[in-house]
Amino acid sequence: MPTLMVIIGSTRPGRAGLPIAEWFAERAKQHGHFDLRIADLAAIGLPLLADPHHPRLRQYVHQHTWDWSAQVEEADAFVVVTPEYNYGYPAAVKNAIDHLSQEWAYAPVGFVSYGGVAAGTRAVQQLKQVVTTLRMVPVFESVNIPFHAQLIHDGVLAATPVMADAATAMLDELARVEEGMRPLRSAAVRQPR
């Protein structure tokens, strides 16, 4: 069974990303196609680009980077749960992506975004530019949640049927693209530690 890593992109105290990611993770479990992993950037706590060498070289000097590298390399597909801050995505997401290079290659990626009226879609458009540079394949289907604060009560997201349908469509497409990309991902050159 392929592994799906759900990356929780917000690190703010009281963040909406946690209940949104928990809801999506439950949908992914019900979908049944993926073995699920959660990567909570708040818990991982990557410092801002602390390794002196370009990530492309995989000459990491810090254990936290090796640990992050191993987690990402074990995944076959990704979903980034991201808010939209000032028309963009959080610095923690960019930092997590930029810590690595080869580990992301030839993996499909989907997005669960949230915000106000734009539902985080502007953040996703910026992220698509970044992930394609790393040879990731963003899927068209996504989950975009407008006015998310109205849907969270006592730390639990009350998802709408539209959100549930969007999650299923995205998971279906991630499964199709992951299967097609698997030979490329398996053949990608990986340098052992």
Which strand-content bin applies to the residues?
15-25%
Major sheet, described briefly? 6 strands, parallel
Structural class: alpha/beta
Which runs of at least 5 residues are low in confidence (pLDDT < 50)? none
What would you say about this model in short?
This protein is an alpha/beta fold and 193 residues long. It has one domain: Rossmann fold, CATH 3.40.50.
How are the elements arranged and paired?
Layout: E1 3-8, H1 17-31, E2 35-40, H2 41-44, H3 63-74, E3 77-83, H4 91-98, E4 108-115, H5 121-133, E5 137-138, E6 143-146, E7 152-153, E8 156-157, H6 161-187
Parallel strand pairs: 1-2, 1-3, 3-4, 4-5, 4-6
Antiparallel strand pairs: 7-8
Task: Please give a handful of descriptors for the protein shown.
193 residues, alpha/beta, Rossmann fold, two-stranded antiparallel ribbon, 6 helices
Structure commentary:
Helices cover 41% and strands 19% of the residues. Helix 1 (17-31) packs across helix 6. The two termini are 25 Å apart. It has helices at residues 17-31, 41-44, 63-74, 91-98, 121-133, 161-187; strands spanning 3-8, 35-40, 77-83, 108-115, 137-138, 143-146, 152-153, 156-157. The protein has a single domain, classed as Flavodoxin domain (Rossmann fold). Strands 1, 2, 3, 4, 5 and 6 form a six-stranded parallel sheet that branches. The longest helix is centred in the C-terminal third of the chain and has 27 residues, at 161-187. It has six helices and eight strands; from the N terminus they run βαβααβαβαββββα. The mean pLDDT is 95. The chain is globular and about 45 Å long.
